[in-house]
Amino acid sequence: MPATAQDVYGLRRDRIVLVTPEGDLLDYIPADGSVRAARDRQGRRVYIDSWGNLIATAMPAGRYFERYGARDYRRDRYRQVEGYPETSRDYFPPAPTEYGDDLTTGSVPDFRNRQPGSVERSELPEPLPGEGYSDQPREDWGGEDMAALPDGSMVFETVPGPRFPTATPIGKKTSAEVTALQVFLDREGFSPGVIDGKKGSNVTKAIEAWQLATGQTLDPNDTDWILEQLHLNGGMPFTTYEITAADAAGPYVASIPEDYAHKAMLPALSYTSTVEMLAERFHMDEAYLREMNPGVDFTIPGTIIKVINVGEPKKGKVAKILADKARKQLLAYDEMGALIAAYPASIGSADTPSPSGTVTVERIAFNPNYTYNPKINFQQGGNDKVLTLQPGPNGPVGTVWIALSKPTYGIHGTPEPSKIGKTQSHGCVRLTNWDATELAKMASPGVTVEFVD
């Protein structure tokens, strides 16, 4: 195609453009025989020169201009901040050296020992989990926005789950490099749970689910490839955020009591601090957020902090959900049977197991109340009366309740995201609040949910 065909103006959005590794349109026409065409790991057509260098990637014009043009909401969520060169789309820093000469993996800039500069704040387009939704349930969901946990009187059946391609072990990596991997998986819809810069079972499960969905092999030690994918899908893994007056104001509660009777006395089961709220907003572990911002007072409006550059929520229509008890992972499939998302989950226990076999989604409620009934629920403390707990992210079911056709069972959020996939639940399927919100927006009543061992 002529070089002018790649100009922004007048270009049909169904045409193909050639995009450089830096995200720009290729500004020349490769001479015949000077490049060869190939396919990358995601099946895209790429052009390589005689030295093996990537020259360009073929991409639909509509997709390119939505990603890099004026409508690029993902990139425009945050504004550039002076003092953070990694926020530049052209920035690829050198490999870290503090781990010795034997470190051969890629080059994600670390976040420590940096002082943020000035910033003009940009509002986040998506509400926080549980915010921006009515207290009343949607009519097409039916029922009331109430949730209750099961009594655990179910019987297990043995049903095998899918076989997953084994993940390549993660080698010696910096926390920033592991974070880049976690952010890549999170943006792809294969959640690693809380982003904390640490290797772990949730990251391994996410890699294996991504491989099952794509049919490709993901090398978690190839940081350069991961950076390239991040560059084309929202930018570098770290960005900056200015704490607003609304962020600092809350409302917050001083603490969340353990006893459900005391919980029921609170007007809302809100966040307990700005740190907890911001950590959930940016899919992070609280301790990691503090580590990234040493000495920062998160209660002061106007403070610039370092956070994770999360992507847009996964989009799609879920037709089937598979809850894999053995893997502690929830898998979401579309109507064609393709795996489109996966989330680490806490699923049942020996005393209060999850149901077996197939059930369906009955209704979905955001920011639900929670009803504790000692006659049908587990025993909590010395409580022997029915209690109604008010909504909030620190409620027993978090910010989302996806009710199942088996009474009192559901898929829901959690007040303790760092424990997801590492502990057991009281029979239900527990996800992080942000993962539960993402799934709830893709699911609908009638979706089948199959429990497998």
Mean pLDDT: 77
Total beta strands: 18
Identify the CATH homologous superfamily of the largest domain: L,D-transpeptidase catalytic domain-like
* SSE-based structural type: alpha+beta
Beginning-to-end CA distance, first to last residue = 53 Å
CATH-defined architecture of the largest domain? Beta Barrel
Strand order of the largest sheet: 10-9-8-18-12-15-16-17-11
Please write the CATH class name of the largest domain. Mainly Beta
Tags for this model:
453 residues, alpha+beta, L,D-transpeptidase catalytic domain-like, 2 domains, nine-stranded mixed β-sheet, four-stranded antiparallel β-sheet, 18 strands, 18% helix, globular, disordered N terminus, PGBD-like_sf, LD_TPept_cat_dom, cell wall biogenesis/degradation, peptidoglycan synthesis
Overview of this structure, please?
This is L,D-transpeptidase family protein. Residues 319-452 form the L,D-TPase catalytic domain. Keywords: Cell shape, Cell wall biogenesis/degradation, Peptidoglycan synthesis, Transferase. Belongs to the YkuD family. InterPro entries: LD-transpeptidase, LD_TPept_cat_dom, Peptidoglycan-bd-like, PGBD-like_sf, PGBDSf, Transpep_catalytic_dom. The chain is an alpha+beta fold. It folds into two domains: 3-68, no CATH class; 77-453, L,D-transpeptidase catalytic domain-like. Helix content is 18%, strand content 18%. The protein has helices spanning 61-68, 73-76, 175-188, 201-214, 223-231, 245-249, 260-263, 274-281, 286-292, 433-442, and strands at residues 16-19, 35-39, 45-49, 54-60, 146-147, 238-242, 304-308, 320-324, 329-333, 339-344, 346-347, 357-366, 369-372, 387-389, 400-404, 410-412, 429-430, 448-452. The strands form four sheets. A nine-stranded mixed beta sheet has the order 10-9-8-18-12-15-16-17-11, with helices on both faces. It has a four-stranded antiparallel beta sheet with strand order 1-4-3-2. It has a three-stranded mixed beta sheet with strand order 5-13-14. Helix 3 (175-188) packs across helix 4 (201-214) and helix 3 (175-188) crosses helix 5. The longest helix has 14 residues, at 175-188. It is globular and about 80 Å long.
